[in-house]
Design goal:
- The chain has 100 residues and is an all-alpha fold.
- It has two domains: 55 residues, no CATH class; 43 residues, no CATH class.
- Helices cover 55% and strands 0% of the residues.
- It is built from five helices and no strands.
């Protein structure tokens, strides 16, 4: 992974070989090792999740059992769920890609 990132930032060509990208993804997940065909969406999701975990601002994820909708307003319910989510997952990735 370190070599991939180093080559990405320091290599003068403007392209990366797909096999190098796939091999790097294979170091993160055994699922992507070998020569089976995989969905690019799966690979992208895996990479985004990995980056999210690496930059997550929450170091200790607390377990919170969430009650179901209990007659409260939609805004209150949405705020409760958002607070619960931010208590476990809060990163630049969630800032960019999550919304409510």
């Amino acid at each position: 992974m370190k070599d991939f990132i180093k080559n990405y930032w320091n290599n003068s060509p403007s392209t990366l070989k797909p096999s190098g990208v796939k091999d790097t993804i294979g170091t993160i997940s055994n699922k992507f090792r070998g020569f089976q065909q995989h969905d690019s969406h799966e690979a992208f999701t895996l990479l985004i999740e990995q980056v999210h975990e690496d930059v997550n601002r929450v170091s200790k994820k607390r377990y919170v059992e969430m009650k179901d909708y209990d007659g409260e307003s939609s805004a209150d319910c949405a705020k409760r769920w958002l607070d619960m989510s931010k208590g476990r997952d809060d990163s630049l990735i969630t800032d960019i890609f999550e919304g409510q």
